[in-house]
Amino acid sequence: MKKNIMNTYGRFDVVFEKGKGTKVYDVNGKEYLDFVAGVAVNCLGHSHPAIAKTLAAQGEKLMHISNLYWNTEQIALAEKLVSHSDHHQVFFCNSGTEAVETALKLARKCGKLKGGSSKNQIIYMNNSFHGRTMGALAVTGQEKYQKDFMPLMTGLKSVPFNDIEKLKAAIDEDTCAVILEPIQGEGGIVAAQRSYLQEVKALCSQYDALLVFDEVQCGIGRLGSLFAYQSFGVIPDVICMAKGLGGGFPIGAVLATEEAASAFVPGDHGCTFGGNPLACAVSLTVLDELINNGIIDGVNEKSLYMIGKLAVLQEKFDVVQGVQGLGLLLGLKVKGEPKAIINKCFEKGLMLVGAGESVIRVVPPLNVSAEEIDEAVKILEEAILEVYKD
Predict the structure, then answer these.
(1) I need a surface site. Which of 79, 91, 274, 356 has the fewest CB within 10 A?
(2) Which residues span the domain enclosing 173?
(3) How many domains are there within the chain?
């Protein structure tokens, strides 16, 4: 069985077969509390009844029709995203990486229209992560992901995150875009400073460059606002999203201002499965649950509760150095490599994942309960005690 899958992931030695809410069950019936949530995908947990109902109903109605034609679900989802944002047009795709690729192409086209062929430079951040296809990989500021796939896309500059002076030194009239994550996820749950984002926005305006926010991991309610930018008070020109947008069903999207979006004309870009009726119907259901059923409204309260619980671990254990992040995208910083703690938690039935070199990422479903948070922190404490008992 396993020999038929390409060796691209260091997987845990487990095979899962079902899940419900925050719990998943392996083929032997063992229960796990899932605080990975498909890496911030399962915003409503597993097998949410509203999603299951939509999948069945839409599956009997219309699943795919291609973008040669309009479909009602795609139109409705675009209207929903636009109505809850400061943006005007959407391009639909299937993943976060595809969303980033779209944004990069849009940036290059906008640059060419504004400043000619020389306005093609894209600035990205050190320690960032934007995906694994060749364009997205080129703006991922971590050599370990890039080195075996050189040469990558050219016309790029990298600068340190949260360092406005370095960005000022790098940006010029040939810059067509700056791309960043409001919170660096794979890079270690590092949040941008609000003042920094404000200055980045001003620089992009000064040099007529697009400001692109990669909200693939930190968006769709995870920070307590539908879009991550709304938690920072800085409006980007372009937003890349995916993960939680489908609550477990593959869908990605790029949301842009009218000025930025107008650069694309028929033939510039496309996506065979993008905006298919099934994915859009699921996404509409997810957004309805998040917005109209109050899930997003409870995120910050749950965040404060969890941060308080995790802070107690910092008081108890020298190995725990702090809690970082916002909303329900949190990181527990530890001394050294966190793998031993993560593995011990897994043995005890708690799923966690690392971020960066020394951070345990904590990303439960957004509808997690206080009791489930208590259970997770209890297991985490037991794991730390066992790993560092000597």
Answers:
(1) 79
(2) 51-292
(3) 2
